[in-house]
Design a protein that fits this description.
Number of helices: 4
Helix content: 10-25%
Shape: elongated
Strand content: 35-45%
Order of helices and strands: EEEEEEHEEEHEEEEHEEEEH
Largest sheet: 5 strands, mixed
Distance between the termini: 12 Å
Strand order of the largest sheet: 1-3-4-5-2
Radius of gyration: 27 Å
Length: about 290
């Protein structure tokens, strides 16, 4: 796949240079040449890699290496956010059929870029590992708001939820940590328990509080802490949350790289955690 890191590395012209003594802007690594076919009025495109020499703002073109041209290239008909690399790769992959192997995109700011031989496997998948209700889960809600802002656009990442529904444990003998989730059952922060046989659904903190409040009661326990849970388990690189701030940061659970944020982390902390996780994964893999 060829996908310029920045659209500032892509130049557009209507004339093919002869190379000898031609000068080009120093940032231009790729050149899109537009050519109108008089007989049909159709515009064809040629995309070239630019070999250049020199140290000045304008540099000498040494050679143009053809990447794609003619029927291999199409121009997407709508303006997109061309800083969203995942969007452009996935869009190009759908359009590259038959002879087509390259798609030119125009941004909402009128800048131009392209994707040649789009490779969806280059998109890193990150799992949002959380529990619900409430719905959407807090972590998912925060991340989707951040994603809509475009803050992850340059990361070439796909974020997918893995949300564990705690309603499967609802019942008159089930104890949840607090009433905020709206789950049906008893709540550790408000109900008084007097009988054995309850099911506690929570983390190690919940377990400790239960035993401090009701030391004489026998109970069973479902651990929902991602560090020790049998049900909240990652299946790929992930971000999750924990009520203990000291556990925040990079982790490896079940062999998968991940990051933990505090239960009530601010948006900027979540964004920073995801960016750091992705950089760590890419620096230690072939992505």
């Amino acid at each position: 796949m060829i996908f310029p890191d920045e659209y500032k590395h892509v130049g557009v012209t209507k004339a093919l240079c002869s190379c000898a003594e031609e000068l080009i802007y120093f940032l231009t690594d790729y050149l899109i040449i537009e050519k109108e076919i008089p007989e049909t009025g159709r515009v064809e495109y040629g995309i070239y890699y630019v070999k250049k020499s020199g140290e000045d703002l304008l540099r000498k073109v040494e050679a143009l290496e053809l990447i794609a041209s003619g029927d291999e290239v199409i121009k997407y008909g709508r303006e997109l956010n061309i800083k969203d690399r995942t969007l452009l790769i996935e869009t190009a992959a759908k359009l590259c059929t038959g002879k087509v192997n390259t798609v030119i995109f125009t941004g909402m700011d009128k800048h131009i870029t392209f994707v040649h031989n789009p490779d969806p496997s280059s998109i890193l998948e990150i799992e949002i590992l959380d529990i619900a209700p409430p719905e959407p889960s807090w972590l998912s809600l925060v991340i989707r708001r951040l994603e809509a802002s475009g803050i992850f656009g340059d990361l070439q990442v796909r974020l997918a939820e893995k949300i564990i529904d705690l309603r499967q444990f609802e019942g008159k003998n089930t104890v949840f940590p607090c009433r905020a989730s709206g789950l049906e059952g008893k709540c550790l922060d408000s109900d008084m328990l007097t009988e054995n046989g309850h099911l506690l659904v929570g983390c190690e903190i919940s377990k400790t509080l239960f035993e401090m409040r009701f030391p004489e009661l026998e109970y069973s326990f479902v651990n929902i802490c991602p560090f020790k849970s049998d049900i909240v388990v990652p299946s790929k690189p992930f971000i999750t949350r924990c009520c203990m701030s000291e556990k925040s940061g990079p982790v490896n659970i079940s062999g998968f790289e991940g990051v933990v944020v505090h239960w009530g982390a601010a948006e900027y902390q979540v964004a920073e955690a995801i960016r750091n996780l992705i950089h760590r994964i890419r620096n230690n893999s072939s992505f």
